[in-house]
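Before going further, learn to read the protein records used in this course. The integers have meaning only within a learned vocabulary of local backbone shapes. The record below shows the convention in full.
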Amino acid sequence: MRADGPAVVLLSGGLDSTTTLAIAQDAGFAAHALTFRYGQRHAHEVEAARSIAQRAGVARHVVLDIDLRVFGGSALTADIDVPKGRAPEQMDTGVPITYVPARNTIFLSYALAWAETLAARDIFIGVNAIDYSGYPDCRPEYIAAFEALAALATRAGVEGRGVRIQTPLLRWTKAQIILRGLELGVDYGLTTSCYDPDETGAACGACDACLLRRRGFADVGAADPIRYRGAD
């Protein structure tokens, strides 16, 4: 996967999206990073995304404000407790309360609009179908469906210049993602994964995102460089 020209990269400030950005740039794309402040309780990730985009030297970084709190329905956008301490088998069962209704569809739609104005043929998103915690909009079937929709819904698509939804992490374990990122020089100390960080940005260490992240670093035998609450 080597290419020239622009690509839109969805950048949340998390481990997966930061690795995806590094992969896109390594492939030769001029990355245009897109971040959302959508009313999430872990809004610290927006500042993390700014730092990551600056360090990566992206062509442009846009932070868009949309307020999904008006709909609620998720522990990330409403006054609902974030689940803590769930076992792996619990994460693999059902759709968790941290699922934000239609979030990736909303994000990809904005990315599609920007890609069309850039004449970009590629959108990168760091979805994962293995360590995905039950999110329906991280499945390969969903990605294929959105790509088909994009071909029908845009001028570029009907003129035969449809976008590719690039998902380089789709079949990777968290350990494989981390290893690739380290190979590419990703500074994971800039990233944040926690769904429920404190006011300083320190991670809780017990939500699904933290547990998956910590297990990934343990599996590769590397130290996780972010701060966790209660850690020395």
In short: Residues 122 and 164 are 5 Å apart (CA to CA). The mean pLDDT is 93. The chain has one domain: 6-220.
